[in-house]
Amino acid sequence: MDYINKQREFAGCNVIERCDDGISGRYFDTRPQFTEMIELAKKGKINCIIVKDCSRFGRDYVELGDYLEQLFPFLGVRFIAINDHYDSDKTEGGLDIAFKNLVYDIYSRDLSKKVRASRKQMAAQGKYIAGQTLYGYRKKKKNKHQLEIDPEAAAVVREIFDMRIAGVGLTEIARNLNDRGIKCPSVYKTEKGEASNHTENAENMCWTASGVLQLLSNEIYTGAVVALKSTFDKVTGKLKVKPKEEWSKVEGMHEAIVSKEVFQKAQEMITPQKAPSETRKQHYICGCCGRGLN
User: Fold this and answer.
1) pTM for the model
2) Is the distance from CB of 90 to CB of 60 less than 8 angstroms?
3) CATH number assigned to the domain with residue range 133-293, chosen from the 4 options 1.10.10.10, 3.40.47.10, 1.10.760.10, 3.90.1750.20
4) d(Cα 197, Cα 2) in Å, to the nearest integer?
5) Rounded to an integer, what distance in angstroms lies between the CA atom of residue 131 and that of residue 112?
6) For residue 166, what is the DSSP state?
7) Which residues contact 131 (CB under 8 A, 6 or more apart)?
8) In angstroms, how far apart are the furthest CA atoms of the chain?
9) What is the spatial distance between Cα 290 and Cα 84, in angstroms, rounded to a whole number?
10) β-bridge pairing 48-51 and 78-81
11) What is the pLDDT of residues 21-37, one digit of tens each?
């Protein structure tokens, strides 16, 4: 903004800011704010894109070159990278900007390897490395890699295990919690000011059978730290779940909400899910919360 305010040519221009915080710049199509910005450019609603440097726009050398050398010239969009001293209206990319983009790409790949190695080491030590806390726990103030019990939510977790062991079905458990006005994990964490995967339409969220099943299947409630359950697919750039034998599990790292015996009894009462049918099914989506309906 300081750069824009100092340029007379931008006086009176409508400035739109887009930022995908916490998402790797190596992937383009998985960044919602980025894709929205490109769509606006394609519709002619943006004629200039300004970034701190090219690494803020993207860190894939080949795809970044396609944007700078093909798409933006075709759309008539001006591109400015402030710290790289690049302005598509005044300078040509040339070897200088191409070399910088290559360095950004290599740096990103090297950094990604170091982060994965660090996470693997921390998981082996039993440290909690997830960004969000599990329902029933909260992070300790003095050590964010260790969990402590949240008494209010933990009481609900114990009740869910007790109901399942008593033979109550998953749907019945969810209906019981909803009828009693007990907030589901997303709503509970949102109201507590904690990070949640479902911040939109949080007020319409409720307990579901699948949510109860996920809770009953999580070994963290026995005091173990289970990590590295998923990995990035190099082809799609999306997360995929790894086989259970490849998960990292360290027991006795925090106070258990339920005993191992109770957890095992609950697992024995969970029937294995059927293989998906080969025939296509019609899917219905709830108009309020956006969840799939059975």
Assistant:
1) 0.56
2) no
3) 3.90.1750.20
4) 33
5) 17
6) T
7) 195
8) 73
9) 43
10) parallel
11) 877 777 777 788 999 99
